[in-house]
User: Fold this.
Amino acid sequence: MIREYLRPNSIEETLSLLSETGKERRPMGGGTSLSRQQTSLVGVVDLQNVGLDQISIQSQEIRIGAMVRLESLLMHPEVHPEIKRAIHIDASENIRNMASLGGWLISSDGRSILTTALLALDTNLTWEPESFKVHMGDWLPMRANTFPGVLMTEALWWTGSYLVFEYVARSPKDRPILVVAMAQWGSGRTRVALGGFGNAPMIAMDGPDSSGVDVASKDACAEAEDQWASAEYRQDVAANLAQRCLRRIETLISSEA
Assistant:
């Protein structure tokens, strides 16, 4: 039950409300993440008026406010096509119109393709107070127990990388059993994230080049067993999907040469 509803008009006011001693309050974006919680909420702080709904490009960095709706990401010309593809697979139109990026990153589980793709991109998250920045890969494993600040305000990733993902599911409309997302930068740095199981996606590899992506992906699934698939199945599929991702990136690079 929500007993207190507050709608501040600035980040400063929001932080004050969320930090007030003796008050149990949660930030509310689109409301989809709060609706998934089973526990009652004493108070919510609505973020609609605090200016976190902007997308900006600075040099080769894209900055996404935590209140940007998933549908707005789909419509923006500078958002990577694979990010848009992930959103289409992950979320229905109704969810896309409601869910904010910040709320999605806080509440999505390991089967989210969007979260897996953003993890592969080495996305950075900004938290207030003090504009504290944390790599998404450092935060996700601790997400259930701790937040780096009072309020996530922004996600940032580099636009100059190649990004692809491949996944398998029991049916086209089902959630993925395994997702392999791969990003590669001009320096050759290659980063592989795995999803489709567990509470959050995980990093399988982050190296100076692409050698061993299949082995690293396979090894990362050694304990990835649940009610949907065995670890052995995921290991075999992960290696194949990683090779498929690498071939796609190599094709993209060749087409630009």
